[in-house]
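Ligand-bound model needed. iron/sulfur cluster.
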Amino acid sequence: MHHPESAEPRTLGDHVWHDHAACRSTPAKPVDSTIFFPEPEEMDRIRAAKTLCARCPVRRTCLDAALEAGDRDGIRGGMTEEEREPLHSKLHRRLDYARVNAVLAGRDIHLTDAERRAVTRAAYQAGVPAERLAWLLKITEEHAEKLYRHVRREFRNRAVEQQNADTSWSAPAPGRDELGTAA
Ligand code: SF4
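Prediction:
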């Protein structure tokens, strides 16, 4: 299948943001990069770095990139190492639908496990072919089909549970085994 987005390397767009970074040093506008690696008590450097970040057009992308890369060093996206630490440690549980939708639209973003599951569910519900899901999540088609089987099972189990809840007043609920769980 032809994907219009695949005409160019997908990763390209995700590094272009570097060019827009307020901390990018140029001969005309030199930036002292050491301000981004302050000691915790060096308030002047922290303030100087945060001032740059505050007017940086790619602040959110920068923060996401640091979190995705597990880059815990220095100030990124306007946050110090200490401020960012809680985000790093709970990253795998993050579920940001803006990011889920961006991937569904074909953008190349490294998602958390929770976000990948959300993409799979949304793609499944939208009837997106496994081949396309494989491309979106950068996995093999076999793996994408397996994810779809999981989702199919999840939805079916949920429907059965719903049905059981609806009918439990009149009849004993059938066991999961009787209904079969193999996809
Ligand atoms: S948010 Fe701060 S560290 Fe990130 S690119 Fe912008 S200025 Fe640089």
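The first helix runs from residue 17 to 20.
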